[in-house]
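hey can u check if this looks right to u? its 510 residues, i copy pasted from the old doc so theres a chance i mangled smth
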Amino acid sequence: MRISIKLKFTLFLAVLLILTVGVLSALVLRGTEESQKEQIEATMARQTQLANLRVRQEYYSQTPRLQPPAFLKQEGVRLSDELSDLIGMPVTLYDAEGGRIGTSLPGEIGPLEGDASGASAFRYAIGGQVAYWKQGSSLEYFAPLEGPDGQLGVIRFRYPIGSYQAAYADIRDLFVTIGLSVVALSFVLGYLFFNRFAGGIVRLKKAADAIRRGEFIRSAPLKRSRDELGQLGEGLYEMSGAIERNISAMQGEQRKLKLAVEKLQALERQQKEYIGSISHEFKTPLTSIKAYVELLEMYGDDPNLLEEARLNIGKEAERLYEMVEKVLRLAELEKYDFELQAGEMDADEALADIAGRMRGKAERFGLTLRLDAEQDGEDAVHRAPIWFDRESFMHIFVNLLDNAIKYNVADGTVTVESGVKRIGQEERLAVRVANTGPAIPEELRERIFEPFFTVNRDRARQSGGSGLGLALVKRLTEAQGGTIELVSSDESGTLFELTFPFAGKEAAKA
């Protein structure tokens, strides 16, 4: 059976109080009894000494002088009366044989032969010792009766001890009354005191049970207690908070782990799609090359076939080389970002160099390539150096201009504009690349930066596109703090905007 701590405290307190008061009362009453005994023995010893002195005086004052036994037998009655008056209590005298020779209470004390206690006490007294026993409210006291030449007999006193017994009874009753009162009062006060502790322990248990159920406490169970229970309550509160924080952290880590697993699964799917796309894109030019090789084996003497095969094999080989180069470049960026050597560079000078290189290809396609840079008061600002890897910058705009040329219309235009753009509290270099080609469908615009994605696959094959250019551009741009965005794409053409950090802050960070 389960016993509550309050009941245990109450029972323990009751037993402790009763035991304490009982033992204290017993010790005090025992001490009182011993004290009374010592007082009685001391009083009776003085009375015996006084009686013996009186007997010797009477013996020496007699004329003529008798022998001690004869003197005692002759004067026994008178001596007992005189000693009783002198001492103030009944006195009886016995000779050496136990015969009664005098008493101040005639008829009340019988012969020793019929009194076992008296006979036993007489034997002690005749042997030179003192003996006594209680009889009702009196004390029967036997002591040696000394004469001039030795012991004459035995003297017996009847000493009233009613006052001692009454005093002892009063003390005992007082202890019972006071003891019960003290026990009751102490029990009530102790119960209230221990009940406070028991209540605190119960609250601590409820708090611990709540923590065990996952119901974390929001405050200390014993706010006003400044003892060990209060400290334990504070410890439970802090432990609850620590457990809650740890569980929250574990749940957060679990969510992160779940997201990481989901991302890994997504990356696995993307990797499979990526490998499938690479295989497919590589297979197309290889298939074309293989087909022309087989035709040349069959019709190697056909000059027209030879010229056509030379042109198409070269075109497909160039396309294959370009895809391999871009795939390798993307793979390097995924693993070796640290190889990008960012530094100060003049963006306008680099753009002019790239435009000069790509202008010949634009003219072969019948297009106009125009480079426009701001030449007003902002010129000094935007011509400040940017913080970027020069080789990556060249790759970015070569790919963008190449796409702008490939996916354009006859007599179209490719425009490159540069200027300053404020983004929040920061000024950045903004470069816009626009062409006059067909619009990109709105539902496909979010995917144009994915590897191997092309808006029109047939046109991409005709122009030699692999779908890797924009993916490479986005990766190179963002790897060094730049941004790229498809601003618009409609009947008038498509516009991309790129921003780059100026050299000041980025150089300080480096």
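The chain has twelve helices and twelve strands.
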